[in-house]
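Researcher: Here's a chain I'd like modeled. Treat it as a single chain, no partners, no ligands.
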Amino acid sequence: IGQHLTSMLKAAFRCKNKPISTRRCIRKFSVDNSLDQQLHHLSRNNGEDLVSYKMRLLGFLYEASEPDLPFVQHLEQMLGSEDEPLQGDLQLKNAILNAYANSGSRENAERMFQWFNGPRVPLETPDHWQLIIKSDLKANDLRKAASRLDDMMRLGIRPDPYTWDAFVEYLLSNQFAPALPFFSMAMKKGFQPAPGNWFKLLFGLGRNSRSDEQMAVLDAMRSYGMELTTREWGMCLHDFGKVGRVDLMMKVYNDMRAAGIQPNHYTYGALIHATSKWGHSEATEHFINDALLLIKTNPELLNIVIQGYINIGKMSHAEELMKSMQNTDVAPDQYTWNSYLHGLIQCGELEQMKITFDLLLENGFVPNEAMWNTVIWGLSRPSWEKPLREVIAKAQSTSPSDSLYVTMITAFGKVKAPWEARAIFKSICRQGVPSEEIWIALMKTMYYNKKILKLRYYFQRMKKAGVKPTERSYEFVVSSLARLKDPKHYSTINDLMNEFLEDLGPSEGLWNSAILAAGKLNKLGQVDELFQQMKECEVKPSLRTWNIVLMAHLEAGDEPEKVQALFERMKVEGFVPDADSWSILIQSYSKAGRTKEMQQLFQAMRSFGVQHRTLDWELFMNGMIKSSKEAELIEMVQNQASPHPKHLLESRLKPKLEQTPSS
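Model: Modeled as a single isolated chain. Structure tokens:
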């Protein structure tokens, strides 16, 4: 079957027809070979005791997350026959109801539910009620599901925590469903959802960035007398900080202190990180001063305070604190020094970073892998090739892991030294076959230095070495070749896509690669066609796929309004845009010279809880400078708490100032 399906999919892909997904093909194959044959392996074997037989049937019904509907119907019919020893078994009937609820067959679920309400069936347990409610919610019928609760109360059946969990999952998956009003209404009617259901709702709202609802649920839990620990308070602080709701963070902090709960290092970590990240420097310093009073009794606060000083650009304060703590019981550790070195890199103090690192080595300090990665990453700039070579030579003597080797190879690629990267790669080969990550790092180095033939050569060599390429390898090579927009590479791209299909099947990565390649080749029609085919083949697009579709439209030179229309459609389909999504949208307006819209989007990122990255600042600054809006840019950057944007702007304005000093 597998060989037949592969060849069929391959032919469909090459003919540019709508490919049929593997799952759909297998289902068709199973239906063509009668259901009786499929059920045969579930029939009772000679000599098998009744308990084992029942366990096998229950296992099948509960383990199938999306059961085949005809299959379940035939199984129900088989169990309903008069000669069946398990006829009328409540557990099996419950399992069949569960299968119908999972498959979305509301009519069958309702029929089974009515059987449970018959005169022969006791009503002491709420199991079948929970399943029919799940079926109602799957059909998006909250009103009907809620009316079932009233029926349960009338019959004297108390909903169990699993029933309430079904409501919680629905309320969290539907952003328009009223979470707190529903639970409050249930409490007024006399229902008592378990504390675990409330906590699941509270944390779920935080994960979905529904901050105001989360705050309302937290207040309601306190009013109902539920005991909150540091864990719940800290989780809410973390969730509010993630989306920049510093106002709610301050309220939670004050309520927490009023309730007599002493903040721990997790609490201060969330407060200091969020306030510094979102530009509230005064609040950050206030929390740092509070944390310093507890630092001797809670050593973990040292790292948090140091990171806070770095985030608000007060490197001198961080350095003084580290010096004062060196000869105490709260001495800086690997994490503290790594944060400090990273902060120096962010502030553009590469010379100071290198001096500090060398002093640490001279004093016998043994860096961990994270610190080596930080220092190598900081020095991977063209003018720092010599210090980079020295640091990498020292790192090689420490028995590096694959992750550190990847950093070394990529760093040499960035400073345009591919020969150094190849030398490291050869030393790895002497120890054994390199991992796929190392091969990809070497191919990236070749791409950075425009050695395309070498890129293809190393990809083929990787396969010959016995390292099977995954989606990442195929995606990187296909997108790299497509980015060149050179017709001589088109046949290679086509061959790679066919290899991808043969090796890994019609996975999400295959569609992502094809969509991105079509965009880079300016074939917008193919981008939309491939995206539609992907959905028809039951391959569910992820946020990454949506970002690739946005990037494909950007690469093909589509109008910013069309890119934004796709961006809005993505949100309607339930995806929350991440930093990459926003960055692509900003790039589309930047390329079109539309600085006003670009500025609005850049500021909107913050209101949606998305932090500006270096790449976003660079794109924004380039667009503003290109449009001669330096004055507005300087004013905006001066209001930032972090020193990083200021250093980026200085590096961009310096050449212009040197040309026209009077400006």
